Amino acid sequence: MDWNDSPEQAAFRATVQKFIKDKLPKRYAGGEEEAFEGGWATDRRSDDPEARQAAQDWAKALASNGWIAPHWPKEYGGAGLSPMEQFIYKMEMAQAGTPNVGGSGVSMLGPTLIVHGTDEQKAQHLAGILSGDVLWAQGYSEPGSGSDLASLQTRAVRDGDEYVVNGQKIWTSGGHLADWFFALARTDPDAPKHRGISFLLMDGKSPGLSVRPLINMGWAHGFNETFFEDVRVPVSNRVGEENRGWYVGMTLLDYERSNITGAVSARRDIEKLLAYATGEGKDRSRLAEFNSIRLDVADRFIETEVMYNFSFRIISMQARGLIPNYEASTSKLFNSELVQRLSNTGVKAFGLYSNVWDAKSKYAAVEASFTQRYVFSVSATIAAGTSEIQRNIIATRGLGLPRG
């Protein structure tokens, strides 16, 4: 592991820092992505002209450097950053609390099209992703197909030059804000479950495609359920071969898997907790009253540093040309459970003041951030691969334990 920047890396870090200082709109300066429900994706369609302008200005600034898609190859409009440069870029953006631009179109669809898409598909869709003009949503999970995604039942039946799609997707993040959808649908119901699936692109305005909100326990609208009722999709919108969509859908070019964004967020949270509990919120804090809570805070502080070192371990491997496997699962597992433990500790630190949900209330501790995060963090050990799945990977690939 190497904690120090080389001269070239230090210069790149300084470039990113200057960019943020010069280009980040005031609306986002000093904030956090979650401070705006939906973040940039919501702002781009806001009725508030200042919010729309901020979203446009930030997307335009990032696009000028290829930084909307820093991991994409330069020939496709990305920045072509090395894993270490991606690491530095993400670290600085996370420390500044900048909003993400592009969503799953950048992280998932774009890399998939670069590898498997036709020239026509690349020409039609990549530019819109890179400019921030077109937002995509993912149609993978279904009510009966989560971790076992290959059991999905949404059907796409060939009818001449079109597929007729029927079925339902769930947990469609940002579906209410999306312009287009990419989805997996079963095109051969008689094939083994990992086969017989095709990868389709669907215009969000297609007749029969409807999005309905799912409001989480924190009263926020991020997820949706998506229904397909005789939605007609041109065969030319299929990515890759028919019935080979499972393998197409697993494609990713973002090899920077250090989760440095999570490590930075955890460090910011513990620093915020300590600053408030020993400063303006001292009278509301229970740290002086209970040794157990002080010990919890100390444990969380140590764990945030452990998370940082997990991140540096992974990026050090990638910088040497190695591909993290169970190491990435270890990092994901530790981070998702750290988020929950840190939120729990933040709630306990302020006692009854943590019952206040409204961030603007004069009684809210740390602007109710730990109270809200405590509720929102329930899904942390489910999203992006459950803790059970991560432990299985660590057991079999890391420890060499037998399956079953």
Give the key terms.
404 residues; alpha+beta; 12 helices; 8 strands; four-stranded antiparallel sheet; four-stranded mixed sheet
Structural summary, described in words:
With 404 residues, the protein is of the alpha+beta class. It is built from 12 helices and 8 strands. Strands 1-4-5-8 form a 4-stranded mixed β-sheet. Strands 2-3-7-6 form a 4-stranded antiparallel β-sheet, with no helix packed on it.
Quick synopsis:
The chain is α+β, with helices and mostly antiparallel strands and 404 residues long. Helices cover 43% and strands 14% of the residues. It has 12 helices and 8 strands.
Itemize the secondary structure elements and their pairings.
Layout: H1 7-23, H2 39-43, H3 49-64, H4 83-96, H5 103-116, H6 119-131, E1 136-139, E2 155-159, E3 162-170, E4 180-186, E5 197-203, E6 209-215, E7 221-234, E8 238-239, H7 245-249, H8 260-277, H9 291-319, H10 326-348, H11 369-376, H12 387-398
Parallel strand pairs: 1-4
Antiparallel strand pairs: 2-3, 3-7, 4-5, 5-8, 6-7
Strand fraction equals 5-15%
Order of helices and strands: HHHHHHEEEEEEEEHHHHHH
Principal-axes geometry comes out as globular
Oligomer: single chain
Instruction: Outline the biggest β-sheet.
Output: 4 strands, mixed
Spans of 5+ residues with little confidence (pLDDT < 50)?
33-37
Averaged pLDDT, please? 92
In spatial order, strands of the major sheet run: 1-4-5-8
Q: Percent helix among the residues?
A: 40-55%
Number of strands: 8
Distance between the termini: 34 Å
Rg, alpha carbons? 22 Å
Helical stretch tally? 12
Please identify the structural class as seen in this structure.
Answer: alpha+beta
